[in-house]
Amino acid sequence: MLLFRGEEHIGRWCSARDLPRGATLSPEQAWRLARGWYEDKLKPEWRRHTLEEAEALIAQTGLKGPFWNLRGD
Known about the structure:
This protein is mainly alpha-helical. It has a domain at about 25-73. The protein is about 45% helix and about 0% strand. It is elongated and about 50 Å long. The model has no long low-confidence stretch (mean pLDDT about 95).
């Protein structure tokens, strides 16, 4: 994971390395995703998220595009 100051910084970093821009998320989105993903991890009844639950959490966080597609299609 790389942290950037803003959109312009991302563009400069990618241009300097001749790399295409990848998926990005804001610190708020990262926090919401992590919170939803790990909120019940320490509970005895914890179980792994289903594909549908993971997709719903990603969508609720506002993350869209091919990078966030868990099905690979």
